[in-house]
Write a structure and sequence with these properties.
Elements (H helix, E strand, L loop, with lengths): L26 H14 L3 H15 L4 E2 L5 E8 L5 H7 L7 E7 L2 H14 L4 E6 L10 E7 L10 H11 E12 L5 H17 L4 H11 L8 H11 L3 E8 L2 E7 L1
Parallel strand pairs: 2-3, 2-5, 3-4, 5-6
Antiparallel strand pairs: 1-2, 6-8, 7-8
Length: 256
């Protein structure tokens, strides 16, 4: 089975960059993405591990496959290399799920297509290169939005969540995972510094931490946890809770 190469370390910011350089999900990032995520996103593995557990509870085969069989349709929006799709496929039989994995980066979807087809050739997984803002969602039981909303302009976030809410069947769920900031400046500063300590503990140098922070400025724009919950209320999710938090990273489950 093909797997992301864990030996490809994230060395993107080991040399000084032009201060105007911006982070992009290109071939360089794809090559080291698993290492980058492992060393940069606290709790990411735990979030992935819980997805099949949530799916067992909330995916009730409410949709129909092209062959007419009852399935649960799942969207993996901003799928990157398809880690969420792979995690679900590893715990469900091929006939149970129809997965649609969407990402705007051709470099990401090219690699995701290879990984998913090599590892789960019998599963119904479609990898789509598209902007999630432009895709019409079919009825579904589960939507995964992991570390994706934060890369969209703030003005577009409500429309994406409205589209998700409309597509979800009654009883379906959205899993929303995001980097956040705290409203209280002192509290936020403490969380940010502990996050940088987390990265230092994972081998990143001060130059790498600073370089990535600069590259992500005005590219990754965070919300507060309260803003996320208020937005979910606004689009029609009446029940939603923060089920996971690790420093300034949170995961929310919203129920249709």
């Amino acid at each position: 089975m093909s797997q992301p190469d864990p030996t490809k370390h994230d060395i993107l910011f080991t040399t000084p960059l032009d201060k105007a350089a911006r982070f992009s999900f290109d071939e360089q990032v794809v090559a080291c993405f698993p290492d980058m995520i492992r060393r940069s996103v606290p709790g990411y593995g735990q979030v992935l591990a819980m997805l099949p557990i949530f799916a067992r509870r909330h995916c009730k085969y409410r949709q129909q496959s092209d062959s007419g069989q009852r399935v649960s349709r799942v969207y993996d929006l901003g799928c990157s290399l398809g880690a969420a799709s792979m995690t679900l496929s590893g715990e469900f039989d091929p006939q149970d799920l129809q997965i649609k994995a969407i990402d705007i980066s051709p470099a990401m979807t090219t690699e995701a297509t290879t990984l998913l087809s090599d590892n789960y050739p019998e599963h119904d997984i479609e990898v789509i290169t598209a902007d999630i803002r432009d895709v019409e969602l079919e009825p579904c039981d589960m939507v995964i939005l992991n570390l994706t909303l934060q890369f969209l302009p703030a003005a577009d976030r409500v429309a994406v969540l409205e589209k998700i809410h409309t597509a979800l069947s009654e009883g379906g769920i959205l899993v929303l995972t995001e980097k956040t900031h705290a409203f209280d400046e002192q509290y936020d500063a403490w969380l940010v510094e502990r996050y940088y300590d987390f990265k230092r503990a994972n081998g990143y140098t001060e130059m790498e931490i600073s370089g990535k922070r600069n590259a992500l400025e005005n590219v990754l724009i965070t919300d507060t946890l309260d803003e996320h919950h208020a937005r979910l209320d606004q689009v029609g999710f009446k029940r939603h809770l923060t089920w996971f938090q690790f420093l300034n990273f949170v995961s929310i489950v919203a129920f249709k």
